[in-house]
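Example complex used in Figure S2.
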Amino acid sequence: MKSHDQKPLDHEALSKLFKALSHPTRIKIIEHLKTIDQCICGDIVSLFPLSQSTISQHLKSLKDAGLIIGEVEGPRTCYCINKDMVETFKTAIALL
Amino acid sequence: MKSHDQKPLDHEALSKLFKALSHPTRIKIIEHLKTIDQCICGDIVSLFPLSQSTISQHLKSLKDAGLIIGEVEGPRTCYCINKDMVETFKTAIALL
DNA sequence: GTGGTTAATCGTTCATTGACGATAAACGAT
DNA sequence: ATCGTTTATCGTCAATGAACGATTAACCAC
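Predicted assembly (192 residues):
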């Protein structure tokens, strides 16, 4: 019941996904999560020459867009790709 | 010599394409050009409740990103999709 | 040439973004 | 309960984006 929300993505929804990916740092975060499956915020912070608050903002953007999922685990937050959303996104673009 | 610039698109380049598509109006313009093959600026203006200057800006964004091509024909400009770039873009996303 | 049509650019306004440091919140460990 | 760790949020600032009307530029027809 949780997966396969395959709504076709209207222009508004699609544009929000594009916006979420319209910054190189956020693309890199997505690619990193893709390769390592999951990690905590601090790991991502150490990958970039950016402050913790800035990375946290980028993560929030990606999470708000539904592209990633963040699970609080004690004092940390573990992030991973939302594969369903990424697939929905790719499908929409293939039709462009 | 002009087509098949199949550079793999780095994060910067990819983020610029995403940004170009991060507005619903620009997505709609792309879809429209896809369906009708080509048209002039004024035709697009009449499709939206937006001013001529605003549409012209959106077209410029898409053109700067390389997603569309504009050919001046007398007093008008004829726009069409840049299929090569769109394909390159889709290919890059499929790898995401 | 003048006038009309089309599109691009300029200048302005307001909202949003991206960055930061500082602070707050949540938790584990002692 | 306090301390240290981790992350989210707040407040600020400069830069960018989106929209508009007005203007300019380019062209065709007359």
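Strands of chain B lie at 38-40, 68-73, 76-81. The two ends of chain B are 28 Å apart (CA to CA).
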